[in-house]
Specification:
Elements: H1 25-35, E1 42-46, E2 59-60, E3 70-71, E4 75-78, E5 89-97, E6 111-115, E7 127-130, E8 134-137, E9 140-143, E10 153-154, E11 165-167, H2 175-183, E12 188-192, E13 196-202, E14 206-207, E15 218-219, H3 222-232, E16 236-243, H4 247-257, E17 263-267, H5 278-285, E18 287-292, E19 295-296, E20 300-306, E21 309-314, H6 318-336, E22 347-351, E23 362-371, E24 377-381, H7 390-394, E25 398-402, E26 414-419
The structure holds adenosine monophosphate and magnesium ion.
């Protein structure tokens, strides 16, 4: 059963997860979006190194693609009017056209040529018959079956017309974008410079890999997750290491990052514990835009500006760090990178698990999309949703997004999911 509460008459109760000081995820996106300025500096690079960069100017087509009308099949190129309707037609084969080796002669009535896929169609020709519908005896072609004028021919400019924008500014370059640029014969393009990010972890309990752990200490995993999340997006990363829960040390690091990076991302120390100094440091050296979002995991999250540097202080629990990165930081990064499209599509599917949920904030539970016995896509929970259980995130292939107002979800109900990975990229 989905329990609904009207957002307008909500008050904090101990039954739900509502916190009047939190802002919605949507508002968090809007505030972040309005406080950031996309990178403006442009670089010219060769297309060989352009994957995952953001295009900084439209790429106009300098040619027609394809440049010439050509055959879509291996077969025979002929004039449609030479075919006799509903009867086998005989034509004399007078030559061959290969891709890259056009047939240069004249083709008279009653004649045809052998043609390969991609070969230029001679001017007098209007139809290609695939070889499977023909017989050949002593240079005479017999065309069998029914045909249509213009069939199996790819017209010049069918893919792209000269002067048309082949790609628009703000496009995140994927392999086929680069293929399109190459098809135009262009080998260098303008992209925005890479976004520069600095990352550090906070916590007296954190140790670097290689150091011995004493009682109560743990290895810093968030920095490795964050650095690689950033690497995936093609961000230039400066790893500032681990900082203890010491306001002076945190202040020094903030000052070192201020105005020297496009974005500073930290994890830990943003809650209301006695050793949480991140938000107060942001308050004293920059501006806090918000620090509580109505989401789970990830309610405490400090966002703001340190001079020109965008700042995100993510909560320290490893799942919270990752979820808030994907949901709040990644859209901001894509906007910083100059990208047009930052929306991530969602799908609806049946839940095979019963999901525990209290109204009051959006939950990003971790799920696994699978096929049920009818071959229909369904989702099941990864199990323990504790924000310290990184394997619940790691075993997942999607987020199950449960709205603020939604309560427990019964098995068999439909839910919204956000897949982690499509077929392309990230
Ligand atoms: P905090 O947000 O600082 O209150 O930390 C919340 C929880 O996350 C604590 O159990 C921390 O030990 C843990 N934690 C904080 N930072 C990290 C990190 N870099 N790697 C792994 N766990 C962390
Ligand atoms: Mg801490």
């Amino acid at each position: 059963m989905n329990k609904h509460i009207s957002p307008s008459n909500r008050a904090a109760t101990c039954q739900d997860d509502f916190d009047p000081n939190s802002i919605s995820v949507k508002e968090a996106h809007q505030r972040v979006s309005s406080m950031l300025t996309a990178v403006a500096e442009i670089e010219t690079i060769t297309i060989r190194h352009a994957l995952n960069r953001t295009l900084a100017s439209d790429v106009l087509s300098t040619v027609n693609v394809p440049p010439q009308t050509n055959s879509a099949m291996d077969g025979y190129a002929l004039k449609f009017d030479d075919l006799i309707a509903n009867k086998p037609s005989d034509l004399r084969i007078i030559g061959v056209a290969y891709a890259g080796k056009p047939f240069e002669g004249e083709i008279s009535p009653g004649e045809c040529i052998r043609i390969m896929t991609g070969a230029v169609i001679p001017e007098s020709i209007d139809t290609v018959v695939m070889q499977e519908n023909t017989e050949v005896n002593d240079n005479v072609l017999t065309v069998l079956g029914q045909h249509k004028k213009g069939q199996n021919i790819r017209l010049y400019g069918e893919d792209l017309r000269r002067g048309e924008a082949a790609l628009i500014k703000g496009t995140l370059l994927k392999p086929t974008d680069i293929g399109i640029v190459a098809s135009l014969g262009i080998d260098s393009i303008q992209v925005y410079r890479r976004v520069k990010a600095a990352v550090f972890s906070t916590g007296d309990e954190l140790k670097n890999i290689g150091e011995a752990l004493e009682k109560g200490q743990i290895y810093d995993s968030n920095r490795y997750t964050l650095v690689n999340l950033l690497e995936n997006l093609g961000i230039e990363i400066t790893d500032m290491g681990i900082l203890g829960d010491d306001p002076d040390v945190i202040q020094k690091a903030f000052l070192a990052a201020k105005n020297n990076f496009d974005i500073l991302i930290t994890s830990g120390g943003v809650s209301v514990g006695d050793a949480d100094y991140v938000k107060q440091t942001l308050d004293s050296l920059g501006e806090v835009s918000f620090w509580k979002i109505a989401m789970k995991p990830g309610r405490p999250l400090a966002a703001g500006k340190l001079g020109n540097t965008l700042f995100f202080g993510l909560p320290g629990n490893p799942v919270s760090t990752t979820v808030t990165f994907y949901q709040i930081v990644q859209p901001a990064l894509r906007q910083l990178m100059g990208q047009n499209e930052t929306h991530i599509p969602t799908l609806r599917m049946k839940s095979l698990s019963k999901l525990k949920k209290r109204p009051g904030r959006v939950e990003f539970q971790r799920g696994i999309v699978t096929l049920d016995e009818n071959g229909e896509h369904c989702v099941k929970s990864t199990g323990n949703q504790g924000s310290h259980v990184l394997s619940s995130m790691n075993n997942a292939n999607c987020f199950i997004i449960l709205d603020e107002d939604c309560g427990n979800v019964d098995e068999g109900s439909y839910v919204e999911i956000q897949p982690f990975r499509g077929i392309i990229g990230l």
